[in-house]
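User:
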Amino acid sequence: MYSVKEIYYTVQGEGNHAGRPAVFLRFTGCNLWSGREKDRGKGPGGCSQWCDTNFVGVDGVGGGRFVSPHALAGAVGRLWPMGTDGCTRGFVVCTGGEPLLQLDSSLLEAFEAIGFDVAAETNGTQKVTRGRLWLTVSPKANAPLRITTGNELKLVYPQDGMDPAEFSSLEFDHFFLQPMDGPQRVANTKRALDYCLSHPQWRLSLQTHKFIGIP
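Assistant: Predicted structure:
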């Protein structure tokens, strides 16, 4: 049984695949906090103070409980405009909450069977699912980082007690700083930009979907 908050077709707004059409599969639940406003500031992850994602319940567009990997892969596959431009593979971004609490090898196999590339955006505290997967790790303050290799490391910046230099020697193909959204977004963007300019290993990742008003 998979619990899903929402499934929708859009473009990836951030990171290495920014601008790429994708089906977003948002799982419910997170191991770092409950996602409920009454629990702001509670839990092992500092992200509970600033997280802006709704991953509670199964009431979003396309959300629900799926009894098998094939049922969930089918729901994702139906949103992809297959055959319209010669594209042979779809693209699904598994996110949350924390997707690795539910994303398993059976689901990866089901996506492969329908011709989908799979990306996962994780906080890095869970075991990596075996299978063909583009892995984006976004470390959170006060949470153990158990995944130290992958495709991209995307650090929300700034976070109290987290220095990008702590991660610069890890085995990732790409390193991104993403300005923390919220009341200090402009100042945070300036700080992230300045850091990237002085440490060119890092690239600036902006949440372009928010600028153009898409989910």
